[in-house]
């Protein structure tokens, strides 16, 4: 028997994994008819039917299952071995990051980057999962949130996360106005003491403890959205809630801010160290991070002056509608 061609085996494995000839053909940059011809040729050479074709795709036969179990590990090993030799374009940069960080922090700033580097094509892939650079050679770098411990990667710190209690203007109105610094424990809170609320009340709560947690969420974006809808007070991440504060959808309830050891980072594998596009992006990104830190410090100083003058809470540039008057006690 003549040895089956490698491209036919690759087409077979791709179709088996996608269970769809159209998607498999797209991944291989082939027409569906060309891929179908490869699979038919392979079936004829082996003298076995490998797929059952149906209206919703293809499924492996018993012979197809056995063949896939034998060839798939070898194809994966070849793919892994050839990845370091894949061509790379320095004018195309592919970045992975969480959708929330993209929409709330990076994308509003990207206009200046595009203006500075119009020749560079930037591709953003949003995912909550950490990218595996070994398995995804097309991704050059990532923006991650965490504690800065990712072995085997180049790690560049951008800025630490800062937390502040935030609530919707509607909730502030229902509660009778902005709280005094030591009254926040009486408000409906989102989360629980296993989150950073414990640290918040230790530092800013005057030794008091919350009396009411109304809901707990396993991701910060859902919690922020619940705060916007008036469900309760979120201990918001400023990097992600600043635009909501500026637009008046959320109101800071305290002058105090809690800086935590959870930060934002740019990370990339060793293969991207000399990527020309990444070098331009990282220079710009660090400039944006420094400007963001400076703005946070300026906001804090302005709030401290404002609190001395009139007792106001919140960011100085929040819309007037988002700054209800403190309830007289």
From TrEMBL:
Q: Which residues form the HTH lysR-type domain?
A: 4-61
Span list, region Disordered = 307-329
Q: Does the keyword NAD apply?
A: no
Organism equals Lysobacter gummosus
Q: Can you name this protein?
A: LysR substrate-binding domain-containing protein
- InterPro entries hit by this protein: LysR-type_TF_proteobact-type, LysR_HTH_N, LysR_subst-bd, WH-like_DNA-bd_sf, WH_DNA-bd_sf
- Write out the similarity annotation: Belongs to the LysR transcriptional regulatory family.
Q: Enumerate the SUPFAM superfamilies for this protein.
A: Periplasmic binding protein-like II (SSF53850), Winged helix' DNA-binding domain (SSF46785)
Q: Which UniProt keywords apply?
A: DNA-binding, Transcription, Transcription regulation
